[in-house]
């Protein structure tokens, strides 16, 4: 009877040891990685799970969602490797488990900074378009001035060419001048929004 109990206990011990070994090799160490994004205005976006570059912008992905940042506003993207966590060693403390379950979100201030940076990029693009239109306006004015100055016969051929070029440029400028008005109004609205956002940051 004692021999039978001893053999049964030994067999149970072997089964338990085998199950423990399977558990150990089935659950490998877990690692995690994230990114930090440094912006021109001094802000740092943390908790980034992944990012994607597309058409001059960077799509930044979090557990809680996604935002878009102009690529020109980004100084550096730094891989923030977390230490390897081995679940075989010891259990997490309750407070650690609770913290890990919360989604990573941008702070309100950082979110406003990102929006302001995006708006400033829009203003830069608008200013460039307006500048291109104003260059054409300058060319048209120079042509008009030159036509007024030309009084001699030898300038008749040149005046005809200038008149033709001037008429062509005037035709090209008509829709551009309308676009310029719209761009100026759009710029004014964006500047108003930036002022409102900056006031929110100061509160």
Question: Care to describe what's here?
Answer:
The chain is α+β, with helices and mostly antiparallel strands and 203 residues long. It folds into 2 domains: 33-105, SH3 type barrels (Roll), CATH 2.30.30; 116-202. It has 4 helices and 6 strands, in the order αββββββααα. A 3-stranded antiparallel sheet has the order 2-1-6, with no helix packed on it. α3 runs antiparallel to α4. The longest helix has 47 residues, at 156-202. The model is unreliable at 1-8, 15-33 and 82-104 (pLDDT under 50).
Q: Any chance you could write out the topology, listing elements then pairs?
A:
Blueprint: H1 2-26, E1 33-39, E2 44-48, E3 50-54, E4 57-62, E5 65-70, E6 74-81, H2 94-100, H3 108-149, H4 156-202
Antiparallel strand pairs: 1-2, 1-6, 3-4, 4-5
Strand content: 15-25%
Helix content percent band: 55-70%
Distance between the termini: 83 Å
Q: Give the radius of gyration.
A: 34 Å
* Principal-axes shape call: elongated
> Helix-strand pattern, N to C?
HEEEEEEHHH
DSSP E strands, number? 6
Helix count from the secondary structure assignment? 4
**What can be said about the biggest beta sheet?**
3 strands, antiparallel
Low-confidence spans: 1-8, 15-33, 82-104
Mean pLDDT: 70
| Tally of domains | 2
Spatial strand order of the main sheet: 2-1-6
- Which structural class do the helices and strands define? alpha+beta
């Amino acid at each position: 009877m004692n021999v039978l109990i001893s053999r049964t206990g030994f067999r149970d011990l072997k089964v338990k040891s085998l199950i423990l070994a399977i558990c150990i090799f089935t659950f490998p160490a877990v690692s995690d990685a994230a990114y930090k994004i440094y912006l021109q205005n001094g802000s740092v976006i943390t908790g980034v799970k992944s990012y994607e570059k597309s058409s001059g912008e960077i799509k930044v992905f979090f557990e809680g969602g996604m935002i878009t940042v102009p690529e020109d506003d980004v100084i550096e993207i730094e891989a923030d490797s977390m230490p390897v966590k081995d679940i075989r060693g010891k259990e997490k403390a309750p407070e650690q488990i609770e913290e890990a379950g919360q989604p990573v979100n941008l702070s309100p201030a950082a979110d406003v900074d990102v929006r302001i940076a995006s708006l400033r990029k829009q203003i830069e693009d608008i200013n460039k378009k307006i500048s291109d239109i104003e260059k054409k306006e300058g060319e048209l004015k120079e042509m008009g001035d030159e036509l007024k100055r030309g009084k001699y016969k030898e300038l008749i051929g040149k005046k005809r060419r200038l008149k033709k070029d001037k008429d062509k440029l005037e035709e090209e400028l008509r829709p551009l001048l309308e676009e310029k008005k719209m761009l100026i109004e759009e710029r004014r609205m964006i500047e108003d929004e930036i002022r409102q956002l900056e006031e929110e940051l100061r509160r």
